[in-house]
Amino acid sequence: MIDAFLRLFILFFLLLVVGFLSWSWREIAEASTGVVLFVLFLLEWGYGAFFEILFRGQTPGKAALSLRVVRADGSPAGVQDLLLRNLLRGADVLPVWALPWLPAFAVPTFAVGVLVMFLDPRLRRLGDLVGGTLVVQESRAHLRDTAPIKPPLTEKERAGLPLHLGLSAEERRVLEDFVRRRQQLGRARAEELAEMFAPTLKERVDLRAETSERLLVLAYAAMVRRRDE
Question: Which of 137, 113, 120 is nearest to 65 (CA)?
Answer without folding.
Answer: 137
